[in-house]
């Protein structure tokens, strides 16, 4: 007013019920012949939704940058590891392409989420198995629906499930007509000051097992026995039994809802 300039401010208002609104005020003073302010005209606009949208956009950009950096690190590690264990360029292309497809599927799941959603375990396992050939009659799924996974763990877990499924197609229950695959999971209830844990059992049976040296200790097993404990604080056990693979994975999750599913 003293400088004869327009008024323009954005500020916060807390209502009696505790809700917060943002307002933008703009105004112009009118003066008499002596230069004294005599009145002010202007408008007050509620900008709460705009500010929330801007805050969400900032958050989304930061999340996109974070996920992109993580994804590039995963792709680089996959390329290096796949290259070091490939016997030819064609072998590398096939295996690396399959792993990129698995990453693409999980990115598709993540991209559909809003700020409060999470990928669920049953959604993730169904997505991976659906990409495998002729699995419907050989697989049993049993466990609670809606077990929400922490976003930071989804990519690693998706790659582990992909490796288990791929090996099952090549050597195990998904590649032999008489064999079966049972995938069961249960949730350990939340205790005071701790996260709930999900316990997953991957059990193949009726498999005519090849020699162990034919299967080897490849990237899938490395992911399970090394990456999962390091990245997800998981407890794992991988056994090659006389009639198939038995793998148990236990790890902390975000939360849960829903009942049981069997397919």
Break the fold down into its secondary structure elements and pairings.
Elements: E1 7-14, E2 20-31, E3 37-46, H1 48-85, H2 89-111, H3 121-130, E4 139-144, H4 151-171, E5 180-188, E6 197-205, H5 212-215, H6 219-232, E7 235-241, E8 244-252, E9 260-262
Parallel strand pairs: 4-5
Antiparallel strand pairs: 1-2, 2-3, 4-9, 5-6, 6-8, 7-8
Helix pairs in contact: 1-2, 2-4, 3-4, 4-6
What does this structure look like?
- The protein is of the alpha+beta class.
- It folds into two domains: 7-46, Complement Module, domain 1; 50-262, 2-Layer Sandwich (Heat Shock Protein 90), CATH 3.30.565.
- It has six helices and nine strands; from the N terminus they run βββαααβαββααβββ.
- The protein has helices at residues 48-85, 89-111, 121-130, 151-171, 212-215, 219-232, and strands spanning 7-14, 20-31, 37-46, 139-144, 180-188, 197-205, 235-241, 244-252, 260-262.
- The strands form two sheets. It has a six-stranded mixed sheet with strand order 7-8-6-5-4-9, covered by helices on one side.
- α1 (48-85) packs antiparallel against α2, α2 (89-111) packs across α4 (151-171) and α4 packs antiparallel against α6 (219-232).
- The longest helix has 38 residues, at 48-85.
Short overview:
The protein has two domains: 7-46, Complement Module, domain 1 (Ribbon); 50-262, Heat Shock Protein 90, CATH 3.30.565.10. The protein is built from six helices and nine strands, in the order βββαααβαββααβββ. The chain has helices spanning 48-85, 89-111, 121-130, 151-171, 212-215, 219-232; strands at residues 7-14, 20-31, 37-46, 139-144, 180-188, 197-205, 235-241, 244-252, 260-262.
